[in-house]
């Protein structure tokens, strides 16, 4: 791949993110009635904040993975990436581990209702061991494993489908 200046990469990433955010926006749909009290519709978060988080997360694609890493200079693990992006863009302090992030207050989101900036979780049963940031169009940014880099993946990938354990909206 030919060399591309940082400013050009940032411009391309920004345009991609804005396209993903625009394509993923849809009006809220009321939840189906439940047996209990009337269900409230889950609305998307603040669009400006969601766009900021999405653009920043996409801009970190390619950053090396490092267990315990939480900055672009040191590299990222999955929860380090999430906590860095939300702190950097919104000054929002989130818990440090994927397990703790899964326990954060906020509405749980059905897969068909995901919105940019939502956190997506993966694990086995009740055990959560991975987290990423949903960016729209069925894709999420995450720091997957040792020896890898921060990357953009599809929720439709069979591995991620098999281990998907839910999503939360923190915005």
β-strand percent reads 15-25%
Share of helix among residues? Answer: 25-40%
Domain module tally: 1
Unreliable residue stretches? 1-42
Any idea of the CATH topology? endopeptidase fold (from Nostoc punctiforme)
Number of helical elements: 5
On the 0-100 scale, what is the average pLDDT? Answer: 81
For the record, the CATH architecture stands as Alpha-Beta Complex
Through-space gap between termini: 36 Å
Q: Count the strands? A: 7
Q: What is the CATH superfamily? A: endopeptidase domain like (from Nostoc punctiforme)
Secondary-structure-based class equals alpha+beta
Could you give the order of strands across the largest sheet? 6-5-4-3-7
Order of helices and strands: HHEEHHEEEEHE
Describe this structure in words.
This is NlpC/P60 domain-containing protein. By secondary structure, the chain is of the alpha+beta class. It has a single domain (8-23, 46-168), classed as endopeptidase domain like (from Nostoc punctiforme) (endopeptidase fold (from Nostoc punctiforme)), CATH 3.90.1720. It is built from 5 helices and 7 strands. The chain has helices spanning 6-24, 47-59, 78-90, 98-102, 158-163; strands spanning 70-71, 75-76, 119-124, 127-136, 139-142, 151-154, 164-168. The chain has a 5-stranded antiparallel β-sheet with strand order 6-5-4-3-7. α1 (6-24) crosses α2 and α2 (47-59) crosses α3 (78-90). The model is unreliable at 1-42 (pLDDT under 50).
């Amino acid at each position: 791949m030919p060399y591309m200046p940082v400013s050009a990469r940032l411009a391309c990433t920004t345009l991609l993110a804005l396209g993903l955010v625009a394509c993923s926006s849809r009006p809220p749909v009321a939840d189906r009635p439940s047996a209990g009290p009337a269900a409230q519709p889950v609305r998307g978060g603040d669009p400006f904040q969601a766009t900021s988080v999405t653009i920043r997360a996409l801009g970190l694609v390619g950053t090396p993975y490092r267990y315990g890493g939480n900055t672009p200079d040191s590299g990222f693990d999955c929860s380090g990436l999430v906590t860095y992006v939300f702190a950097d863009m919104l000054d929002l302090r989130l818990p440090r581990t994927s397990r703790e992030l899964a326990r954060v207050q906020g509405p749980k989101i059905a897969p068909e209702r995901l919105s940019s900036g939502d956190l997506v979780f993966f694990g086995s049963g009740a055990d959560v061991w991975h987290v990423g940031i949903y960016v729209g169009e069925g894709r999420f940014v995450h720091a997957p494993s040792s020896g890898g880099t921060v990357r953009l993946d599809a929720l439709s990938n069979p591995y991620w489908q098999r281990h998907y354990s839910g999503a939360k909206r923190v915005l």
